[in-house]
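Q: How would the structure tokens look for this protein?
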Amino acid sequence: MSSGVTHESVSKQGRLRQRFDRLAAQWREDSKYSSSLTEIAMHPAYQQIIGMGRDALPLIFEDLQREPDHWFWALCAITGEDPVAPEDKGRLDAMTAAWLAWARQEQLV
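A: Here is the predicted structure in token form.
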């Protein structure tokens, strides 16, 4: 492969993607009927995604681009940032837009 991309890095990315997809599917399935944001964010699969650290950010942002979801707790935990304006708290579409704008600014998407 060219441009410094090794088979090892591609393999690592594939494993990260598989793990993220598996954990995200489990989190969504188990929390789909929950209205508690704390319960949603404390789900073990969600916590494991947070534990993936900055490696999870491109995957979360890719997911957010497809469909808004409650990734904001994870994003704040991983980045230490919160670009959402106070008046937009609780508005899924506005919160998603704020985070995606932040990700573009940080060149993560």
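DSSP finds six helices and no strands in the chain.

The chain has one domain: 7-105.

Upvote if useful.
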